[in-house]
């Protein structure tokens, strides 16, 4: 069949949004138009692309295969068109997915400065710890720790090396004592992080005599929300463990106290990353330049 690019555009919106209504909102058309477009594409191909339910749709095996084949070319075409018609300041929607622990990106100043410098760009930030394919999910870029970024991505440093440290409120340490070795943590009330309810809490990593090891602390409180962990620690609820950058203001004010610092392990920091392209769109180039300038000022 001869390809109808408009129908493929509808298909991509449905695949990324997960339902017809959200896809219709993204495209600025009616839900009925989206449904009819998918039906026409399926009739033309002679194969089902989506499985419909009352609330959502999911791709069939053929649909998933088609999505993998067309997502990247459509993204490249969009970037090329933006570049060709670039006759002024960068503009358009820039979608970025960011891990919840990227304090430098999420703290406010970086985003506020970018918004002021580029009023024509709408920055849509999704905060999640799901390590999905940013291209398949429809994002222009992401922010993650360097160690989990795919090798075929362009990565721009956002921070230098990072450290995870254990901290607690002075009141908690006064009542329960200060651990002198990481293995003593199993006897303390700990506040741990896990990405989802069905996933075991993350083990806490340390280094001794040049050898890395981790401790399963068996936390009494677990969450996927760093803010809850922080507030619980500030309230004297126990020892918690996360990036030093997250705790730095509270340590400076004496509200939290670091422990076991001699066992801390440094590791590569955060990066802004995006698919390798010969000519990234102006809106993405603007964010890259802003991140580089922001890091230089930090």
Radius of gyration: 23 Å
CATH class wording of the largest domain: Alpha Beta
Low-confidence stretches: none
Largest sheet data: 6 strands, mixed
Q: What is the distance, rounded to the nearest whole angstrom, between the alpha carbons of the first and last residues?
A: 55 Å
Arithmetic mean of pLDDT = 87
List the helices and strands in order: HHHEEHEHHEEEEHEEEEHEHEEEH
Contiguous helical run count:
10
CATH fold-level assignment of the largest domain: D-Maltodextrin-Binding Protein, domain 2
- Helix coverage percent: 25-40%
Number of domains: 3
**Structural class assignment:** alpha/beta
Number of strands: 15
Shape: elongated
Examine the secondary-structure arrangement and name the CATH architecture of the largest domain.
Answer: 3-Layer(aba) Sandwich
Beta-strand content bin: 15-25%
Description:
By secondary structure, this protein is an alpha/beta fold. It folds into 3 domains: 5-70, Arc Repressor Mutant, subunit A, CATH 1.10.10; 86-160 and 269-297, D-Maltodextrin-Binding Protein, domain 2 (3-Layer(aba) Sandwich); 162-266, 3-Layer(aba) Sandwich (D-Maltodextrin-Binding Protein, domain 2), CATH 3.40.190.290. The protein contains 10 helices and 15 strands. It has helices spanning 5-17, 20-27, 31-45, 61-84, 103-106, 109-117, 170-176, 226-234, 244-252, 282-297; strands spanning 50-52, 57-59, 92-98, 121-127, 141-145, 153-157, 162-168, 190-193, 204-208, 211-215, 221-223, 239-243, 257-259, 266-267, 270-275. The strands form 4 sheets. Strands 7, 8, 11, 12, 13 and 14 form a 6-stranded mixed beta sheet that branches. Strand 1 and strand 2 form a beta hairpin. The chain is elongated and about 70 Å long.
């Amino acid at each position: 069949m001869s390809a109808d690019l408009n129908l493929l555009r509808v298909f991509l919106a449905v695949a990324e949004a997960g339902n017809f209504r959200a896809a219709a909102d993204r495209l600025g058309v009616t839900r009925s138009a989206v449904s009819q477009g998918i039906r026409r594409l399926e009739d033309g191909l002679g194969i089902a692309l989506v499985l419909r339910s009352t609330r959502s749709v999911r791709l069939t095996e053929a649909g998933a295969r088609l999505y993998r084949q067309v997502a990247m070319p459509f993204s490249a075409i969009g970037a090329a068109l933006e570049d060709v018609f670039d006759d002024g300041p960068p503009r358009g929607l820039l979608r970025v997915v960011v891990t919840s622990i990227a304090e430098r990106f999420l703290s406010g100043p970086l985003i506020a400065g970018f918004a002021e410098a580029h009023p024509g760009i709408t920055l849509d930030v999704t905060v999640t710890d799901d390590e999905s394919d940013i291209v398949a999910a429809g994002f222009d870029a992401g922010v993650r720790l360097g160690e989990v970024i795919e090798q075929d991505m362009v990565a721009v440093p956002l921070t230098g090396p990072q450290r995870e440290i254990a901290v607690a409120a002075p009141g908690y340490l006064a009542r329960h004592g200060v651990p002198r070795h990481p293995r003593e943590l199993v006897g303390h009330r700990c506040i741990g992080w896990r990405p989802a309810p069905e996933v075991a809490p993350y083990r806490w990593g340390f280094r001794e005599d040049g050898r890395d090891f981790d401790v399963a602390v068996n936390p009494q409180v677990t969450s996927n929300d760093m803010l809850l962990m922080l507030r619980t620690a500030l309230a004297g609820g126990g020892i918690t463990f996360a990036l030093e950058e997250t705790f730095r203001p509270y340590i400076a004010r004496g509200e939290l106290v670091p422990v076991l610092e001699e066992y801390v392990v440094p590791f590569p920091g955060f990066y802004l990353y995006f698919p390798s392209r010969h000519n990234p769109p102006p809106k993405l180039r603007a964010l890259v330049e802003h991140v580089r300038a922001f890091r230089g000022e930090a």
